[in-house]
Each structure stands twice: as structure tokens, then as C-alpha cells.
């Protein structure tokens, strides 16, 4: 999440100090497990987000596009057109779900550095 932020991307992750739930989660969590492997990357635009997800899945082998994020491998979803598609655009906006909001659940296959290299390379190739 910090590396994505350093690239100037809009990241939502409770492990970042500016996240509104950061202090509360720090008080509740088991320090041995950290803040978890689920984060959001808000690309604002559905077309850009879909291109990234397709590239990550089909060209890079980063993970799989899915509507559920419960699996042992890395899964990614575009919330506005999957899990939150039953909400109107106005309801999505009120909930903070932009058309390009990507949710990522990092699986336990591969190392964190391998996943980062795949993600960073995909972002680089798209100019993000």
C-alpha cells in the first residue's frame, strides 16, 4: 500500500496511518498478522481498471478476477460492476465506490516481492 501511494495512486488500506480505521484496528489486531492482505486501489475509471485487471490476470499471472475475495490465490474485483452492481450510481458514490475501484486480496502463493514486481510492472506498462 505504501509503495502504491508513493506512485501517487489512491490506495485504501487500514495499515496506512491516514486510514480512518487505522488506530482502531491497530488496537484490535494481532500484531503478528498485521493489517491484512486486502486493499483497494481507486483508479476512478472503469475502463482503466478493467484493462489493469485483465493485464494482471491474463498477461502477468498476478491473480484472478472474481466477485468473491475468499481464495488461497490473489483475487481482484471491480466493485462497481460486481459486488456492488445492485446499487445505483448515486448509492455507489455515497458509499465511496467509484467506477474504477479495484479490490485486491493478496493470496499466499508467491512472495510479497514477486507480487509487487508483477503489480508494479503492470502499472508501469499502463503508465500508472
Strand order of the largest sheet: 1-2-5-4-3
Helical segment tally? 5
**How far is the N terminus from the C terminus?**
15 Å
Average pLDDT figure? 94
Largest sheet: 5 strands, mixed
Q: Give Rg in angstroms.
A: 14 Å
Low-confidence stretches: none
SS elements, strand count: 5
Range of strand content: 5-15%
Describe the oligomeric state of these chains in a short phrase: single chain
Helix content: 25-40%
How are helices and strands ordered from N to C?
A: HEHEHEEHEH
- SS content category: alpha+beta
> Which overall shape is indicated by the principal axes computed on the Cα atoms?
globular
Would you mind describing this structure in some detail?
It is a single chain. The mean pLDDT is 94. The protein is globular. α3 packs across α5. It is of the alpha+beta class and 128 residues long.
Which helices and strands, and how do they pair?
Elements: H1 2-6, E1 10-12, H2 22-28, E2 38-42, H3 46-60, E3 64-65, E4 75-78, H4 89-94, E5 101-105, H5 112-125
Parallel strand pairs: 3-4
Antiparallel strand pairs: 1-2, 2-5, 4-5
Helix pairs in contact: 3-5
List keywords for this structure.
128 residues, alpha+beta, five-stranded mixed beta sheet, 5 helices, 5 strands, globular
Amino acid at each position: 500500500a505504501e509503495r502504491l501511494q508513493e506512485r501517487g495512486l489512491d490506495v485504501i488500506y487500514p495499515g496506512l496511518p491516514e486510514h480512518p480505521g487505522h488506530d482502531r484496528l491497530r488496537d484490535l489486531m494481532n500484531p503478528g498478522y498485521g493489517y491484512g492482505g486486502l486493499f483497494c486501489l481507486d483508479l476512478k475509471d472503469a475502463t482503466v481498471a478493467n484493462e489493469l485487471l485483465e493485464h494482471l490476470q491474463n498477461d502477468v499471472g498476478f491473480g484472478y478476477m472474481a466477485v468473491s475475495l475468499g481464495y488461497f490465490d490473489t483475487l481482484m474485483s471491480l466493485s462497481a460492476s460486481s459486488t456492488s452492481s445492485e446499487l445505483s450510481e448515486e448509492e455507489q458514490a455515497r458509499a465511496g465506490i467509484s467506477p474504477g475501484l479495484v479490490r485486491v486480496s493478496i493470496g499466499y502463493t508467491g512472495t510479497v516481492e514477486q507480487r509487487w514486481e508483477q503489480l508494479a510492472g503492470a502499472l508501469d506498462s499502463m503508465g500508472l
